Amino acid sequence: MHVPGLRAAGAEVVEWRAPLWLLPGHSRGPAPSGLSAQRVGYELGEAARMVARIAWLVVAGLRIRGPVDVVVVSEFNHALTPLARLFARRWGARLVVDFCFSFWDTAVNDRKVLDPRKPRARYRKWLDATALRMADDVITETPATARQFDDLFGGVLEKAHPLPLGVEETRFSPAPLREREPGDPLRVLYVGSFIPLHGLDTVLEAARLLAGDERISFALCGKGQTREALMDAWDGANVEFPGFVPEEELRERLAAADVCLGVFGTSEKARNVLTHKVWEALASGRPVVTGDGPGPRSMLVDGETALLVPHGDPQALAAALVRLADDPALARRLADAGLELAEAHTTSQIGRMLAEILDRSSSDRFLRGT
Known about the structure:
The chain is an alpha/beta fold. It folds into 2 domains: about 65-165 and about 345-370, 3-Layer(aba) Sandwich (Rossmann fold); about 170-345, Glycogen Phosphorylase B (Rossmann fold), CATH 3.40.50. The chain is built from 15 helices and 10 strands. The strands form 2 sheets. A 6-stranded parallel sheet has the order 7-6-5-8-9-10, sandwiched between helices. The chain has a 4-stranded parallel sheet with strand order 1-2-3-4, sandwiched between helices. Helix 4 (about 105-110) crosses helix 5 (about 120-135). The two termini are about 25 Å apart.
């Protein structure tokens, strides 16, 4: 998302990256569970892929001729920070790491799939800490995530630059909210991964509390870690689980929805982020209900651009949905204000904001003509 935004802001961008087939896990699916020959083969394959990826990047980096003002390590590429630092020093450039995601915190504290004492968890923590230590500047999703990473790893706040995720212009497909007929239920839509961060257990408990209210129905689209267990435990009639939906169907479901849901998990990360799903719902012109916290509060105003409820609180979520079912005028005001907020945080606007951050971090002028 940042590359077209930076170019729109007038920056000259050279993309330094390996081909798709060298990315981790590409076309291979998730790692086999347990200790088995298949798991060993998978891990050896990933190690070979990493070596090949680094070799590719070294050769590609040696072909780049300066001047280079700033090297940006894009999101989810922490493991490449040491290599990026070597080349940044070679070019006399600043090193900026887009740190929207902590591998260690996500696996250990949020999804709880790794024991913090195990080597794999320790390796992830080393990756995160090394990337943050080597960076001259760090991009974070919200001010709250910057504080969280500073608490976890130290030394972040003095070089952190919060930058909202925003939304790509191509993701905008706003449609007017429909006028609901008597007896037509409020259509509540969730789109995203079934992972602890998103708190689908809270959503389903809210649906259970509303099971007798025929004015409200739910559609939870997506797949992921917790989906099968949640579906197996669910016996209500007011929720459908369409699974993964393709882009065209997703646009249709957004246009047909009356309310979109955000994040309701109870981890610190859940309270500190403002995810893509929220931005895309705003850009679709839909009222949003999401969990409260310092992350959402950095951009959203409760009752004006969204309804914010306590994380992990199904009663509060159910009450917010009843409020929207009873007050179509409120839903329309939220939809209009949310769309206006999204329109002010598109790819091009975020690109200009990032270009200004990079320009300030560079010893030379980063933008053309400055």
